Amino acid sequence: MASVIPKTHQLLISRFGKINRLMGQVIERELLPLGISYQEMRIAGLLMGEEGLTQKALAEKLSVRAATLSVAISKLEAQGLVKRVPSQSDKRVNFLHLVPSKKITKVDKVLMSVEGGLVQGISNSDLNITAQVLTQIIENLNSQKETPL
Q1: pLDDT digits (tens, 9 = 90+) for 121-131
Q2: Total-model pTM
Q3: Nearest-CA neighbor of 46 among 15, 13, 8, 73?
Q4: Adjacency order of strands within the sheet including 82-86
Q5: CA 137 → CA 9, 12, 52, 69, 127, distances in Å?
Q6: What is d(CA 5, CA 8) in angstroms, rounded to the nearest whole number?
Q7: How many CB atoms lie within 10 A of CB 31?
Q8: What single DSSP character describes residue 65?
């Protein structure tokens, strides 16, 4: 059976995987002096955009097990970056809140710097097209995710 994907696009998934691994390695290295890991940064980043997530919801968004997430949250809590707020209706549930801090501001600057290096040498026109294409790919994946298997 012939592939319906043109040869020029067959490695797109592989390229996304490679980009993800390389970005993670670069960000991890840049965050090292701040004492925060890439995984912890991902948690803080999601909490920036969605304040008051439960640990279960956050674990689902990060595609990690709740036990793995609990360890990372404890580290962030020890650094004063995250606060757990127990649910008043269900004491087993914790809502997570990001605590504003200078470290979070520094993390944001690191991410902006990494992104600046990431797009170096790429024209604004190409970046706009890339953003449009990536947005469409995300929409396509979201619709596939919602389709029953």
Answers
A1: 999 999 999 99
A2: 0.75
A3: 73
A4: 53-54, 94-98, 82-86
A5: 13, 11, 28, 27, 15
A6: 8
A7: 19
A8: -
Q: Locate 25 and state its tokens.
A: 């390695």
Among 76, 126, 120, 116, residue whose Cα is nearest residue 97: 76
Q: Token pair 């955009």 is at which residue?
A: 49
- Listed by start position, the domains of the chain span 11-118, 120-149
Residue 144 and residue 137 in contact, taking contact as beta carbons nearer than 8 Å: no
Spatial contact of 82 and 98, defined as CB atoms under 8 Å apart: yes
- CB of 70 within 8 A of CB of 28? no
Cα separation of 148 and 45, whole Å? 29
pLDDT in tens, 71-110: 899 999 999 999 999 888 888 888 999 998 899 899 999 9
CA angle 69, 71, 73 (to 5 degrees): 70
Q: How far apart are CA 112 and CA 55, in angstroms?
A: 27
Cα–Cα distance for residue pair 142/146, rounded to 1 Å: 6
Tokens at residue 50, please? 């969605």
Tokens 């290295």 belong to residue = 29
Is it true that domain 11-118 has CATH number 1.10.10.10? yes
